[in-house]
Design a protein that fits this description.
By secondary structure, this protein is an alpha/beta fold. 42% of the residues lie in helices and 16% in strands. The structure holds 4'-deoxy-4'-aminopyridoxal-5'-phosphate and glutamine (GLN). Glutamine (GLN) is lined by residues 31, 33, 50-51, 191.
Length: 412
């Protein structure tokens, strides 16, 4: 007998269900990233599943964190984040995008982008409200919408017949908005497909969000990781959008410190107040010695970080090419990404189910990937269309990718 009364439908089960983590027998699994990283560790396979770099970010930024640890930055920082970091975030948004935010009231430091997104959804979506997201989507979106008791409404990415690139399904996009739409969660550059949404797609999203009175939350963690001259355009820069948009980013991807979990959100004071109100009861604050280091990186007084990020994007483009060529040669149908760490590829030549293929890949060739179905609503049209697709990360050293590619060639 359990020593407590087990509620019939506890909220945590809704969360597990929303992210597709409940097995047929009711057992609950960890996230796909945890499962696949554990599988890689167990089998010794090359882990191209979870997206994290195998080389650390700039040494002088690490030194700034060490200096902060040694000079007493070890107690709670202010709930909003230290002033230096809020100022650095505001100046970054102004420098890169011409967006001007008051560091005192319009910038909030969070525990990674994940907390910013969670706090924004919990702040605005009530039970029964609808949150529009692009499918496939980063898994935390569905989880946090379920935590809020709100309804996830997905708009699929579809492939363009001519170019093969992914774009928004415009008809589905228009149909997604209704009287209960409270929030639109945008992610560009997009995980898992590596799509950078076009200004046309963003403009249509903006038009529909405005017409329905929805708040836009935009996850731009891959903002600096775009390739081939493709520019990332924050939706907040479109006419009339700054006043209804919360822009989220973090240090993880830009600086190759995914474990630091220092993120931020910018937007008009009333929207940021809403997010702060929730955020202060999730973590209150975090990352005391890391916040000054991220401030140093975003300020980038001597330009070293700017150079680091430009080189990172260029080297990622080359690593993308290496992996895409290898995957194509191995028999995958690849959609070449314009940004992020990731490429998605159709593995129909090897299995009709990407999840099964991912569980078999370590045994078959010693490589780990993640199924695109983990980023979809089970049974949705997009999940069906992408059933045999898998995601690979290329944020690994060239020698690691070369070895992975030669192993994948053995699939044939
Ligand atoms: N959004 C997307 C699209 C991501 O890929 C990630 C990566 N983990 C996150 C949010 C989470 O960012 P953070 O680690 O800063 O919480
Ligand atoms: N954003 C990374 C990915 O998509 C890591 C996600 C995670 O571990 N939660 O792979």
């Amino acid at each position: 007998m359990r020593p407590y009364a087990d509620p019939v439908n506890p909220r945590w089960r809704d969360v597990a269900q929303a992210v597709g983590l409940v097995d047929a027998d009711g057992a609950v699994r960890p996230t796909i990233f945890a499962e696949m990283s554990a599988l890689a560790a167990r089998t010794g396979a090359i882990n191209l599943g979870q997206g994290f770099p195998d080389v650390d970010g700039p040494a002088h930024v690490i030194e700034a964190a060490v200096a902060a640890l040694r000079s007493g930055h070890n107690q709670y920082p202010p709930g909003d984040g230290i002033p230096e970091l809020r100022e650095a975030v505001a100046s970054h948004q102004s420098r890169h995008y011409g967006l001007d935010w008051d560091p005192g009231t319009e910038v909030l430091v969070t525990t990674g982008a994940t907390e910013a997104i969670a706090a924004a959804v919990l702040a605005f979506a009530r039970p029964g409200d609808e949150v529009v997201v692009i499918e496939p989507y980063y898994d935390s979106y569905a989880a946090v919408v379920a935590l809020a008791g709100a309804r996830l409404v997905t708009v699929g990415l579809v492939r363009d017949g001519a170019s093969g690139a992914f774009g928004l399904d415009r008809e589905a996009l228009r149909a997604a908005f209704g009287p209960r739409t409270r929030l639109v969660l945008v992610n560009s550059p997009h995980n898992p497909t590596g799509t950078v949404l076009t200004v046309d797609d963003l403009t249509e999203l903006a038009r529909l969000a405005t017409a329905s009175g929805a708040v836009v939350v935009t996850d731009e963690v891959y903002e600096h990781l775009t390739f081939d001259g493709v520019a990332h355009v924050p939706i907040a820069t479109l006419p009339g959008m700054a006043e209804r948009t919360l822009t989220v980013s973090s240090a993880g991807k830009t600086l190759s410190f995914t474990g630091w979990k220092v993120g931020w959100v910018t937007g008009p004071a009333d929207l940021v107040t809403a997010v702060r109100t929730v955020k202060q009861f999730l973590t209150y604050t975090s990352g005391a010695p890391l916040q000054p280091a991220v401030a140093v990186a975003l300020d980038d007084a001597d330009g070293r970080v700017g150079e680091y990020v430009r080189e990172l994007a260029a080297s990622l483009a080359a690593r993308r090419d290496l992996l895409c060529v290898g995957l194509t040669a191995a028999g995958f149908d690849v959609v070449v990404p314009s940004g992020t760490y990731f490429v998605v590829a159709d593995g129909a030549a090897f299995a009709d189910d990407g999840a099964r293929l991912c569980r078999e890949l370590p045994e078959r060739v010693g490589v780990v990937a993640v199924p695109v179905s983990a980023f979809c609503v089970a049974g949705s049209p997009t999940a069906r269309a992408l059933r045999s697709w898998v995601r690979f990360t290329f944020v690994k050293r060239v020698d690691v990718l070369q070895e992975a590619v030669s192993r994948l060639a053995g699939l044939r």
